[in-house]
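Comment on both lines for my students:
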Amino acid sequence: QVQLQESGPGLVKSSQTLSLTCSVSGTSITTSQYYWQWVRQPPGKGLEWIGFIANSGSAFYSPSLKTRTAITRDTSQNQFTLQLNSVIPEDTAVYYCTNGLEWGRGTQVTVSS
């Protein structure tokens, strides 16, 4: 069974870089056919897609976040990571990692002004 789990700081200051890691078990992020994605949900709003990294290592991002986002992976740890630069309070959200079928539980990130 594929499982995903997010980890990272719950509080980040404005202008700093947010870094979250998704640990994957039950399949390899390099050989499976999934797209390993990051999605967030700001308070009171719907889900917002951030981007994904494919099994090839290629990454694609939402146009609205592209200039501030990087998704990378550590194949030795079977993990992929989200970096969001120059965060602002509007980046406050619950952040999820997913392969489109399975989802992590989500992690709350608050950006302080």
Notes: The radius of gyration is 13 Å. Strands lie at 3-7, 11-13, 18-25, 36-41, 48-53, 59-61, 69-74, 79-84, 93-98, 107-112. The CA atoms of residues 15 and 63 lie 20 Å apart. The chain has a mean pLDDT of 96.
